[in-house]
Amino acid sequence: MTTNEKSLWSAMRASPVFLRLAVSLAVLGGAYCGLAVFLSSHVPSETTVEGIAVGGMSPETATVTLQRVLAASASQPVHIQAPSRTVDIDPGAAGLKLDLPATLSDLNGFTLNPAQMWMRLTGGEDRPLKVSVDRAKLTAAVTEASRRVENAVKEGSITFAGGKATAVAPSPGSAVNVPKTSDLVASTWPRQQVVKAVMLVTQPKLSAAEITRATKEFAVPAMSGPVRVVAGRTAVTLLPAQFAPALSLAPDGGGTLRPRLDTPRLVAVILAASPALARDPVDATVRVVAGVPKVVPSVVGTRFDEPALQAAFLAALTSPERTATLTVVLVPPKVTTATAQGWGIRDKISAFTTSFAFNPPRTTNIRIAARTLDGTIIRPGEKFSLNGTLGPRTPAKGYQQAPVINAGRLVKGYGGGVSQVSTTTFNAAFFAGVRIERYTPHSFYIPRYPEGREATVSWPDVDQVWANDTGFGILIKAQVSGSDLTVTFYGTKVWDVDAVKGPRRNVKQPKQISDPRAGCVPQSPMPGFDVTVTRIFKKSGRRSRPRVSAPTTCLRTTSRAPTPKAASERVSQQPR
To answer: Which residues contact residue 34 at a Cβ distance below 8 angstroms, ignoring those fewer than 6 apart?
Structure first.
């Protein structure tokens, strides 16, 4: 120790005042630090959270206090109030939670700053309560609740049921604005248990004033009495209940109701009351009467001028006279009497008959096909297609299952027997002298048909097609009498046609084949052969132009046959 230090220490020991001062300062410093430590673990004395006093409490005690006081309100459902009703959502399910640590954060902490320590001793503030929000869950909960309070917009309307005008007033629709309502819930929970929903309002397209106007100006007058409809010398009176189903009012896009008339429906009502006011045109045709073709004259049709009818009828609904004068328009037939006469269908030009054995399902099919074919008219230059005339052979048309040829064997199929109609028609066409363009012989020879002059048919690809190149129309008559089928062509005879059949060639004898498959139909053996048939055309007894039919291969055993040599063969479930 230096001399000076020794002197100072001696002086202090000698001065009691200085000693007391040093001790006091040490005590005060310790108390100050102790107070700082105390204040660092307590909430400022005047602090409140949403009005709840937590001042002077430790953070732990303040948290427990807030939980106890807020527990009741935080667990209560939030009532979302809409104009129509109030719905509840559960705060927990909606992702709403109290965040007390965040609420009490930065209220404590060690400091020796006199000003901050003084604030903690004497000051404080009313702090807002902080909550945590799961936005996805809150949006989902508000969306679900909104579905129960939404009201669809109700459009106004005017109806005419039963012949009376009935008006329905419009009303706006409302829906919850989910994003804004969710924000409102998040910002007021749990202080506010009732939240007024933010609503979106949709106005109807038609105003109540427009419904009232249309009812007064049109609907009520329209249904006030009957309407007299006049067409030429004929008049019909329609009651409101009769024409009301054809009447309506619809918005025009600008918020105004306009009358609309279902004209075809009104025409049906008018014609039900007086069928003579309009009629469909009738085409001329040719029918055989007592064996002689006769032209059945055409009939001109009549119809209403629909645009004029609509204007006249709507005007009559609000006029004092309540009378609609209609314009009748003449509708010409597609085939006039002169056209039918020009076809030149005057005489029988060919006929052919085939016979069939007893088989009720097959006979039924022949009768249906003959009835469909009967009365067909082929105009000059037109082509005839048997498939096009008969269409598919289906149960809906009455066709039954009967033997058909499929891949060289007899099986059951719908339309079995229609090939007899085809063969009979083919022979009538053969002797009428028309140009035969497409036909298919059977897979094997069938004795009831003439050699080389038979044609099968099957929907949709095996067809019989020929062109009417006679220069005149052809009327086909097909009739079943007992066990005979006769097809007759009427027109103007141009050619006398003879058939010359050559000898059988390439004769093949049948052999026995056993077919164990289900559905096999036994068939008699028949030799196969090639044959050529020549058509000889004569006019006034003189030979004019020979036409040779394609050589026909008719080779078939009980199971299979070689490919025809000179005739196309397409076998696909071919009816016999």
So the answer is: none
**Residue linked to tokens 């009467």:** 289
> What whole-number distance in Å separates Cα of residue 491 and Cα of residue 286?
10
B/e letters for 393-408, b = 16+ CB within 10 Å, e = fewer, are: beeeeebbebbbbbeb
User: What are the φ/ψ torsions at residue 291 (nearest 5 degrees)?
Assistant: 85, 0
Domain of 219?
Answer: 213-283+294-334
Beta bridge partners of 503: none
Closest-CA residue to 370 (of 410, 417, 323): 417
* Predicted confidence (pLDDT) per residue in 164-210, tens digit: 999 999 999 999 999 999 999 988 888 888 999 999 999 998 899 99
Joined together, the tokens standing for residue 261 give: 């008339």
Residues 405 and 327 in one domain: no
Q: Which DSSP letter does residue 295 get?
A: E
Q: Hey, which residues does 546 pair with through a beta bridge?
A: 536
CA atoms within 13 A on the CB side of 26: 6
The whole-angstrom separation of Cα 403 and Cα 411 is 5
Residue 202 inside a domain? The answer is no
The domain boundary, picked from 334, 363, 396, lies at 334
Q: Are 244 and 364 part of one and the same domain?
A: no
* pTM, entire model: 0.59
Query: In the structure, how many helices (H) and strands (E) does the chain have?
Result: 16, 37
